[in-house]
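Ticket reopened. Same input as before:
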Amino acid sequence: MSYVEVDMERVLSNELSSHAGERVRMAGWMHRIRRLGSGIVFVHLRDRSGICQIVVEAPGVIASLDGLLAESVVEVEGTVVAEAQATGGYEIHEPSFTVLSAVTDALPFPINKPVINAHLDTFLDHAMIGLRAPVKQAVFKLSAAVAHAFRDVLDGKGFTEIATPKIIGSASESGANVFALDYFGKQAYLAQSPQFYKQIMVGVFERVYEVAPVFRAEPHQTVRHLNEYVSMDAEMGFIQDHTTVMTLLTEVIRGILDYIGSHCAQELVLLNVQMPLAPQEFPRIYFPEAQQWIFEHHGEDCRGEPDLAPQHEKWLGEWAKETFQSDFLFVTGYPMVKRPFYTAPNPDDTRYSNSFDLLFRGTELVTGGQRLNRFEDYARALEARGMTQEAVASYLETFRFGMPPHGGFAIGLERFIMQLVNLSNLRDAALFPRDMERIQP
RNA sequence: GGGGUCGUGGUGUAGCUGGUCCAACACGCUGGCCUGUCACGCCGGAGACCACGGGUUCAAAUCCCGUCGAUCCCGCCA
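Engineering reply: fixed in the latest deploy. New output:
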């Protein structure tokens, strides 16, 4: 049995320098066609590696491009020539074209300009095409690199990747609303988090992670919420307390930043990314102390409130940057009343929890903490909240049969990208975002 | 769930204290010119019943009401 070679002797636009003088075969989209007159046409060919320029001078070949609009797909055979005038130093001469797919209609909006001139709503209606724009590609290349680096760092620390179900039978977990669906006549729900399963799997592998979508039926309408987003979850056993998890998270974040710094130079430049300040140890502040600081420095008295408002997080983020030269800030010890039942309390003051949020440039990026690990503690926690054990019976079985002290966290991938790239809307960090109004495309 | 703002050719905007707007500019599309452009340039052209419905007025893109759509903030969450 023989297979056709995947790359079929095709040369990519970023490989021209190693083929100078050769006759090569290329293929891609006509990103831009610049017809300078009867005598010369420049075609910018876009493939997965980038864009290169093809110079067309033969009248017959120029005629073969008549009527083709941007985004037409072509195969090109031509000679690689070193040319100082060309961006990148090389271009294709004496080409011949085979049209694989001709475009004759104008695009909904131009995608070959440095900036995309379309409202978010318009863009999303045509995301199928808009995503081809180099600036948009770069966002999702970065996104892929972040997810890759997340896996890479955790693989290196003995974690095992898992895939937990997104269709689940019971919906009692945290405060977030769930989407109900009909499952062969039974009531089922879309998972709002892999929380239960990743804890259960700590009992199997000690250390696990998952990169997968989660579903939130919250009716929110803001630039930093989606109803479906990618959660990068990790959970590990045999921790001291939540600070062990914070140390792990710090290493993960720094590992991700290192990775994209060394692998995504092109995207970072194109998107004008200011690399985050990420010191060896991220500064941390205890929840009630954060409220006290807000009261003293901004005059707003939120002391006693169970949570921080977005504005508070912004202030704290600015403070961390100025005081500690860090774009990241841990806020620890969120009140127990605001945390789900599986959260471990602070043993020294049980009003507060052994949990944390990580703020990235003043926006909540990660939630994590230590979980309860003894069955008796779960029984008490459920009772205190008026919940029944039956509702979470299979989850609880885990804790009857030996679970180590453990904890973990969940990073919102789109949030990470949004804050990294300084996007004004989380929807710009999702390929096909799902919000209250949008389920198409 | 509560509140604010907006709705003008395919796209992005100007006009919006009513008449001079059968609507202007840029991108895109299109006809012509240009053999080194790379956000090419130059000269033309097509394309909008100014979201929809009603009202005020001699006169409405412009003022009022309603509907729909979009968007942002708060709450909730990552």
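Residues 134-155 of chain A form the longest helix (22 residues). The domain at 13-101 of chain A is CATH 2.40.50.140 (OB fold (Dihydrolipoamide Acetyltransferase, E2P)). Please confirm and we'll close it.
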